Amino acid sequence: MFLWTAFLMGLVGSMHCAGMCGPIAVSLPYRIGMQAKEETFLKILTYNLGRIMTYALMGLVFGMIGKSFFTMGIQKWVLISLAIVLIIIALFSIDIEYQSLKIPGFKKFNAFIKESLSLSMKNPSVLSFLYVGILNGFLPCGLVYMAIMAAITVGSVFHGILYMILFGFGTLPMMMALGFGGNLVSARFRTFLRKLYPVFMIAFAVLFLMRAFKFGHLSSDFDFWFHELESSSPDNPPCCK
Q1: pLDDT of residue 18
Q2: Which of 28, 63, 85, 144 gets the most CB atoms within 10 Å of its CB?
Q3: What pLDDT is recorded for position 183?
Q4: pLDDT score at 110
Q5: CB burial readout 124-142, b (16+ within 10 A) else e
Q6: 55 within 8 A of 141, measured Cβ to Cβ
Q7: Which of 1-10, 162-171, 231-240 has the highest mean pLDDT?
Q8: Span 58-100, pLDDT tens digits
Q9: Whose CA is closest to 203, among 124, 126, 110, 89?
Q10: Where are the alpha helices (DSSP H) in the chain?
């Protein structure tokens, strides 16, 4: 089932999260005075659940878009187009986060998110941690954009939401570890993992193309000829008029 790729994408790509969202996760005021470990754990978990809530919202929106593509019967071409986009990004090392800021209005929206984050991060309350997580989910992130592309291809609002939630849970182990142990991953190792991203993107492009083949005419033609051969076998001679 295609949904399993969501958790895998989040789990493997969470090293990217360590580089992009890690500074925010590490700098949050988790520990205040003689605060119990349970409360620290609750704050870290709440922050990450906030991110997953935003991903679920994205799954709702882009799941609706994906469903409309399936309703129109153009899912094959959507999959092929997304595969081509991923291959181009991978081959030409396009900075998705930077390019996304060129979208009209998105740069201002991103500035608003960052300003809200800086104000909310000073508040040590659990509710504030949830809000920070929700805002964090809206920051430009190539990995999240890849997950959104995949969520579009599932063809259902429910599965779009589920895909993004599973993706979020895939990032959870790394982000929880960052909250507890600080920046455990060296900058050199993060740089190495970022170099593997083109391979990761091409792998998903191939997966999209495989799904496009499923919806394509080739599989239908194969089934047609298979049934023709079966009906022409000695046990099932063709009818004569």
Answers
A1: 64
A2: 144
A3: 53
A4: 93
A5: beeebbbbbbbbbbbbbbb
A6: no
A7: 162-171
A8: 999 999 999 999 888 888 898 999 999 999 988 988 888 889 8
A9: 89
A10: 4-20, 22-27, 37-72, 75-91, 96-100, 106-120, 126-136, 142-152, 157-181, 187-195, 197-215, 217-231
Question: Which residue in this structure is represented by tokens 């799941």?
Answer: 63
- Name the amino acid, one letter, at 64: M
Joined tokens for residue 214 = 């499923």
- Give the separation between CA 162 and CA 30, rounded to whole angstroms: 29
Domain ranges of the chain: 4-231
Q: At what angle do helices 197-215 and 4-20 cross, to 10 degrees?
A: 150
- Rounded CA separation 3/154 (Å): 8
Q: Identify the burial level of 43 via C-beta atoms within 10 angstroms of its C-beta, where 0-12 means exposed, 13-18 middle and 19 or more buried.
A: buried
Task: State the residue for tokens 């076998």.
Answer: 233
Query: Is the pTM for the entire model greater than 0.85?
Result: no
DSSP category for residue 30: -
Query: Is 225's pLDDT higher than 50?
Result: no
What residue type is 101 in one-letter code? Answer: L
